[in-house]
Amino acid sequence: MKGLEIEVKIKIASPQLFRRKLREAGFRIHRRRVFERNAMFETEPPSLRPCGCVVRLREAGKRFTITYKGPASVGKHKSREEIEFTVSDAAAAQEFFGRLGYQSKFIYEKYRTEYKEQEPSGIVTLDETPIGIYAELEGTEKWIDSTARILGIADKDYITLSYGALYLQWCEREGLEPGHMRFK
For residue 180, is it within any domain? Predict the structure, then answer.
């Protein structure tokens, strides 16, 4: 699938309250909570990061997805080209990347639950990560802003950083040497 991804993240203080707001707004679980392992691939020397691109292999339960993300355009929302497709064998995909000169450079883990409305125009995810709980709103800019207002989220609470960038900020605040963003 190829398209334009438009999204924002929001730091969630109370997952219970956020879930209640989602239900009251008509959102229902689209995909149940699942553990995700995301591996970001890069060459040595780096060829993707300097131009703002990423290649990722996501393992979510028994579903394996390869994603290419182009350079981000960041304003109030973050948007970027996204090409995504599923594969049947994560180990073979990793070996394939290795043969092309790409190695897993950063791994981040999370538990993700996906929510949609009855007439879906976008998707809301609730991501439980080792550095906190975040929601992602993905859809058109208009849908994101409208949904955020319904959920009581102000524009000033929008986050356009990646989980990798959020992790680096967290490590700096905690005085930790960055590695991978994994659950202990």
Answer: no
Structural domain total, the chain: 1
Q: Quick one: tokens of 88?
A: 């049947």
We report the CATH number of the domain holding residue 33 as: 2.40.320.10
In a domain, 136, yes or no: yes
Predicted TM-score of the model (pTM): 0.94
Helix (H) or strand (E) holding 172: helix 163-174
* 116 belongs to a structural domain: yes
In angstroms, the CA 74 to CA 127 distance is 21
Instruction: Tell me, yes or no, whether 179 lies in a domain.
Output: no
In this structure, the chain runs to a length of: 184
Expressed as residue numbers, the domain containing 75 is 2-174
Give the pLDDT confidence score for residue 118 in this predicted structure.
86
Among the listed residues 109, 149, 144, 106, the one whose alpha carbon sits nearest the alpha carbon of residue 129: 109
Q: How would you class 147 by CB atoms within 10 Å of its CB: exposed for 0-12, middle for 13-18, buried for 19 or more? A: buried
Instruction: Give the sign of the dihedral formed by CA 48, CA 50, CA 51, CA 57.
Output: positive
Distance of alpha carbon 150 from alpha carbon 67, whole angstroms: 30
* pLDDT (tens digit per residue) in 110-153: 999 999 998 879 999 999 999 999 999 999 999 999 999 999 99
Q: Which residues contact 162 (CB under 8 A, 6 or more apart)?
A: 54
Q: What percent of the chain has pLDDT over 70?
A: 99
